[in-house]
Structures are given as structure tokens and as C-alpha cells.
Amino acid sequence: ETGVTQTPRHLVMGMTNKKSLKCEQHLGHNAMYWYKQSAKKPLELMFVYSLEERVENNSVPSRFSPECPNSSHLFLHLHTLQPEDSALYLCASSQQTGGSYEQYFGPGTRLTVT
Amino acid sequence: AQTVTQSQPEMSVQEAETVTLSCTYDTSESDYYLFWYKQPPSRQMILVIRQEAYKQQNATENRFSVNFQKAAKSFSLKISDSQLGDAAMYFCAYRSEDFGNEKLTFGTGTRLTIIP
Question: Where are the beta strands (DSSP E) in chain B?
Fold first, then answer.
């Protein structure tokens, strides 16, 4: 695998379910991100992890819980979601020190909450 | 806070022609980075081109070039000799840094259609 991978690619879940999204980067980067992409809205930054520590949480509801066990893996744990949480969730990584500042994105997980 | 505006939700261009996508931003910083990202229908976002604000010369990557007007806070993308594979959503993004942590602010995107 190369670049940034995300699983699953598609997820349908009920409002009472618990699920997790997984992201893995194979680029040796030291920062990882979760974004939410909804139709006709700018990408919304949800969480940033730099050197495995969470450095930003943009007022994201607690039903979204991130986890970064190491610099290559990032999870987004989901529970008791709402229909308005249906969106494309993108993971990205970058090298925050001495890098080109480019963020590399995964293919996304299309989440539908029923 | 920085904002990024893309005023063209949709654009179309004939194959082999040239198209320009517009982007404006608002910032009080003097040194920053700007990016254009492309998101094809398969959804993986990839970087098209990057511009460093302290560089006066406009960035160029093959058929892609930018017109960076720092005073006007404008950062347009020109695609020359458009190809069918250029069809995608294009996002303009501004990079800011806060206490050593970077953040990208994106515009709402422009959907580009290539007409054969």
C-alpha cells in the first residue's frame, strides 16, 4: 500500500450503532487529520494530530472520538450519530516540520446515517 | 480567521481549450502558502499546484499555472489544453500556521466539466 488508505470506503449505520473509521499513512509523516466533506460546503477540519498528540478539535460533537495510537494510524470512533453526520470523511497526512506543507489525502469513507 | 472564496460553483470548457478558475482569500498574514487541490470523481484529493506568498513568480506545473495577485488576495488557476482527465472538483486552500501547527482552509470548490 502506498500513500494514505482509508477503510471502509462505504459505511451505512443506524443512529444507535458504534463504528470506527480507519486511516493509515505510508509516507512517514508526523501529522494526521480528519476532515468532513459535505455537499456544497468547504471541507471542515475536525481533528489534527501532530506527533501523535491531538492539537486541534474544532468544536466537534463528542459523538466523534478520534484516536491516534501511532504516527501511521488514525481512527475516528463513531457512536449515536445523527442523520446530518452523513458525509464523506477524509483523512490526510503531512510532514509538519521541514516538509513541503502538502497534505496527502485518502480516498475517504462515505458515511450514511439512517 | 482566514477565509477562502471560490465564486464559481461550476465551470465547463471545451477539450483542448483554456479555462481559469478563480479564488480569493482574506488574511492579515504576509507569509503563507496557497494550494489548488483536485478531487476527481473517484474522490482522492491530490495537489495540483502550490504557491508561496513570498515568491513573486507565479507557480507552473506543466499545463497548470496560477495568477497570484498578493495585493488583491487573488489566486486563480489556469488550465491550458484541457483534457478529459481534468474533469474534477477543484479546491483552493490557504495554509496557516498557529504555534507550529498547520491548518488548511478550503474554499467550497469549483466543479469543472470538460466537453469533448
Answer: 3-5, 10-14, 19-21, 24-26, 33-39, 46-52, 60-61, 64-69, 74-79, 88-98, 101-106, 110-115
**DSSP-assigned letter for residue A83:** G
Q: What is the dihedral of CA B28, B30, A31, A66, to 10 degrees?
A: 0
- Cβ contact, residue pair B101, A45, below 8 Å: no
Q: Compute mean pLDDT per 10 residues along chain A, 114 residues long, and list them.
A: 90 92 94 91 88 76 93 95 95 80 91 94
Mutate one of A6, A43, A50 to test the B interface: name it (highest B CB count within 10 A).
A43
Residue partners of A108: CB distance under 8 A and separation at least 6? A6, A9, A37, A88, A89, A90, A91, B43, B44
Is the CB of residue A42 less than 8 Å away from at least one CB of chain B? yes
Contacts of B88 (CB under 8 A, 6+ apart): B38, B39, B40, B41, B111, B112
pLDDT value at position B96?
Answer: 81
